[in-house]
Amino acid sequence: MANPAIDPWTRPISVAVTGSGGSGAVTAGLILLAAAARAGLFGLMMRSAGPQIRGGESAAMLRFGPRELGCMGDRFDLLASLDWGNHARFSDEISLDARSLVLADPQAGPLPGSISDSGAAVRMLALRQEAAAVAAGRPNMVAVGALGAAAGLPLDALLSGAMRTLADKGGDVLDAAFACIRRGYGEPAGTAPTLQQQPPPRWNISGNEAAGLGALRAGVRFVAAYPITPASEILEWLAPRLERLGGALLQAEDELASINMIIGASFGGVPSLTATSGPGLSLMLEGIGLAVATETPVVVVDVMRGGPSTGIPTKSEQSDLDAALHGLHGDAPHLVLAALGIGDCTFTVDWATRLAERLQSVAIVLSDQSLGQSRAIIDPVPPVDGIAPRGVVPSGAAHEDDGYRRYAPTDDGISPMALPGTPGCTYTADGLEHDPRGTPSSRSTDHRAQLDKRRDKLHTFTYGDAWAEIDGKGDLCLLTWGSCRGAVMEAAAQLREDGIAARVVALRLIMPLRREALLSALAGSTVMVVEQNHGGQLFRYLHGERALPAHARSLARPGPSVLRPAEIAAAARRLLQETHDGCIGHSEPWGEGL
Fold this sequence. Notes:
The chain is α/β, with parallel strands linked by helices. It has helices at residues 25-38, 113-118, 127-132, 139-151, 155-165, 171-185, 207-217, 232-244, 255-267, 278-294, 321-326, 342-359, 369-372, 444-459, 485-497, 515-522, 537-544, 565-581, and strands at residues 13-20, 42-49, 57-65, 78-81, 101-104, 121-124, 203-206, 222-225, 248-251, 272-276, 298-304, 335-338, 362-368, 375-378, 468-471, 476-481, 502-507, 509-511, 526-531, 553-556. The protein has 4 domains: 13-185, Pyruvate-ferredoxin oxidoreductase, PFOR, domain III (Pyruvate-ferredoxin Oxidoreductase, domain 3, 3-Layer(aba) Sandwich), CATH 3.40.920; 204-378, Thiamin diphosphate (ThDP)-binding fold, Pyr/PP domains (Rossmann fold); 391-461, no CATH class; 465-581, Rossmann fold, CATH 3.40.50.
């Protein structure tokens, strides 16, 4: 059943499994991803579901190939649907064409019109009938075998993937899964391709797990949070691991409690973090202001989803940037960072935590559903180093009659922080403005001095090269942030294949903005800012900071469907054509519908 035109060791291929919620589409995807890893390939798996607790639609979308993958492709090579009941809800996400192959169960009913209209080839496969021939057999396991065969994956890689994914289900479940996979594979025993060697040591990790790993690497030992989609997996992953490291995770009664709990833990000297999504971030903003005013380091990971309000909890959108940048009342300088990929969730949370500790500030880290709940096969990410820990007052270094000056100005704006119980270092830490000793003050001179101190320590710190990732050369620059980076990188590659020199600038540190470094990176370029939200939030922020050339343009489209490389490349070609024709005369965003 293998398709000789499909070779994942030569070029990436894309595979989708769809079905109703509870049909096992995601489990099938997890097995295929693990099988790709066992076969020595890199991989990416995104999942899509409706907001229902059970039922509705469910899909696993995979891509695997010979290099690391940061996004889905423009089309899918293979599709197996476990049922057609809710398939229409994925028509925007799973693009098929005449080169695609659809595996269809004749017992699942007539093909949807979207399948027929796509021109994809259809191969009938009796998923239910084959599964019924196995005690406790499941159609999704037959689909795993059939898709694996069509993709050219070795049978023993598929069986290894099933072993990894279903290890906690028991022997009977595994036996049935193996039998169904073999039936779907359709190869007589001993004739299927086999694995020749052990795979390289790579991670099979989700963005939420990667964020948790970054927190542990940076020394986080207390987490308080309230569960919320799509951030809850960070908490689930961290809970047992924190305990093994001597830390603790507490499920708070709400987001207001969780932000105040981590402020208290950090005040006591323990690096602390919370994870949430947009609605929870809104509730935390007043508490975040308290951490800014008291210069207490905390980290808030916001795994963004479609909004506003409840919005689309199970789908992705980069629409919390405005809130992260400007949501706090008063002048409240803080750090805002964005993870640029699944593996980069580890680096960015690690880096953000170390920055927050060193600078005694708040770090808001922006991830999103398409990063947090997707899984990837990637090379291991090295830990962050070179950032000094939080500066604390040594025990016995201060005396009561000297008067400990917690907020005294220093050359770098960072004042040593005394932990509770340090002799001679009692001070007030509350939300009122204060003088250098921490005594509440309404004097304008104290207010100005503390505002300057909290701002300047962030702006004068040396952040190094990690503020952005810059790739390629050319007069066309695609400027982006967060999860859009993967699709933008592939769009740039497509443009280069057409002879258009393009480079990518992906911002990791968004506030404080490294304005001069960004202007230098954009110098002489035709610039297009690419992001997944409705209002062009990064585009408008950068214009407000005078960090874009006058004729920069915006490609801003809301979710829930992710941006595709071809969509970005087409917009870039139109921009270059308009620039060539002399039509660019303003800096308003194009918006949706390019």
